[in-house]
Structures
1.
Amino acid sequence: MKPQLFILVDKLAYFFSWEARFFQDHFDVVSYPHPEAYLYAAGNDVFWKATGLPCKKRISFLTPGFSLDPYHNKMWREAIRQTITDYYDLVFTSNNVLSSSIEHPRIKVRPLSLPWDKLPPPRVRTKAQSFLHASANWPHKCLQNQIAILSLLEKYSLIERGEVYPDASTPTNVEGYGPTDQLYLRMRENDVFIHIAPDHPFAIDNSPPATVLEAAATGAICFWYDQYAVGCPYETILTVSSAEPVVAVADIYETLRTLDVAAHSLKTAEELRRACDPVKTVKFLADAILALS
């Protein structure tokens, strides 16, 4: 008989959707919390709500964004740390920015996953001439910095074209993103994806952001700036040394000058599809949860 698990999720529902069904491989997923069931609170918005619910063991998943910033904000940091001590048996985070900020022994960094049923098949790039940046226009995404980099690349004829998606004419959802199917088509059509933003004093992002992982899974050559200096967990995602546009453009040029684009594109798609498999990710979560018994 499988152990019971109650999953509490709200604002993170979309990002949780492609993992949800795989929990049934490891648990009897129940529709209400009770003292004999594990409780998995998926998302920052339900982190405190879950503390009042009955459970066998209480687990959460915290992610950058959604108004949670313990990296810059000491008040958030101390409140989260104390809540974990008082109420949680295990807390997953999506990257080392949160784990190193909160510094609690019950935090475990988990792998991210991607929606394989929605992503288009990979395309091996043979050149690096069309560039894309895609994100919502949130402050920590620093859209103006992305535009400045693309403009410099075009100005010096280093690329054929640069695109920002969504543009002003594209309808967006409440979080500011364009339609997912169109986003994935743009990612697959373009050769290179960039997400190069400086640290923002009031917000943090995933390292790397999910859009970088999605683009990489299509075979795009991806450039990212590690603004928190936590390191990149993916060998094939390329980094620049600074978010300052002139420096970033110089780094991109020097990297592409000697890069075997086709070989790197294939290797990138293979790495991301192996590393961000939702089946393997949920097994990682389930093993960690069941080890609490």
2.
Amino acid sequence: MVSGGLDLYTANKSRKMSNEIDRLQRAQTAGTAMTLSAIGTTLSAIGSLAEMNFALQIQMAECDAKLQTLTDISWKISDYFDRKEMHEEFVATMRHSIHTMNRELDLIDSLTEENPAYALWKASLLLEVIEERDVRVEHFSRVSQVEMTSAQNLLDRAADTRSKISTELRESDRIEEYRLLTKTLEQIADCSDRLNSVKNEYSREERGLPKFGTNNPYLIEQQKRRTAPLREQISSLEEEEIPALWDSIAHLIPYSSALEKA
């Protein structure tokens, strides 16, 4: 029950974040100037650069999950022609995946002018998802000519988008921004993994104190000595290392200025 509540909370927060990104994207695409109060309202569910980055990845994560469903059956939807409901479900998943990837490319297009390095990073991630999930035109040919054409257009658009942004960055001597962004995001991921590992170790140490020893000053002191280095590592990662890494690429994260004003 507790886990379900947490999952529901996370899902609701993700939905709110996604809606806020959509609103910012529509405003940017339309060239609408947003007031400070409007920005504050828009970013009510996004409070940090880490959350902004997470919000910008929600759509791709959802798409990846849909594609995983098709990968699990090796894209062999023809095996389910005699099971109408399952076959229709897989076809719907294929169509929704193409739709979501096109929306992801729309988002990337909207970020290209102001944040080309981040747009290139997202375009590269999308192509990685396409390759890892084995998205190929021939899979869609088993459904119809229309689906096959739709898939081909999507794959061409994804490749062209990445190539175009990469070329523009190189021609404007801004490719180093992309390298800084990718390297720093990898460092943040490594630090986050390390943080989770240290937190798990700290939890194990806390649970390791026997119940009968909770009132034993000696055992309590021994535990404090063992956990002190872990607490220091957690504090350093949460309050210094990870925030410093985010700050170093704040200028490359979309809508970061709006986040500061909010």
3.
Amino acid sequence: MGRGVATLSHATGVVYDDISWMGLIQRAVCEKCSEPYYEDETTECCDIPLVFAEYYNEDHQDWDWYVEGITDKFTTKYPSLTTTDSWDGNEVHIILENDLCEIAISDYCSLCSISIRPKENEYGHTGLADRFCRYVDIWMNEHISTLNRVGGFSDGTSCYEKKT
């Protein structure tokens, strides 16, 4: 069975972002002296041209910066949102909440999902929570989403297209 990026259970809004740029660095190693060079430092060493290739940066700092940037965008637009650190299952990290909603982030391969769901109280969803989530979903589609989900297969795999 295939799989895709996870989202909040009972999410009323989901957007997708391409994070394929994350964690990749350009690096070259001189064949003679084994000195490492990074992009934009130089183009040759020991009188031979350097050949740069992409390597995965394993310190996960890019992901932390990305989540921090997403959090800043939301809290600037919606000051009532506060940071939180909880989980919806094993793969969906709830990063923001207020009295009306929860906002979560998840990644898989080079795809990120950001989803929102209204909070329930003892009476169920309130109309205010549902309306707030719809407004935030519209904003997420305009300011965060770079991909549209165009469909899925029976094995769970999904297809996406870049937004124009």
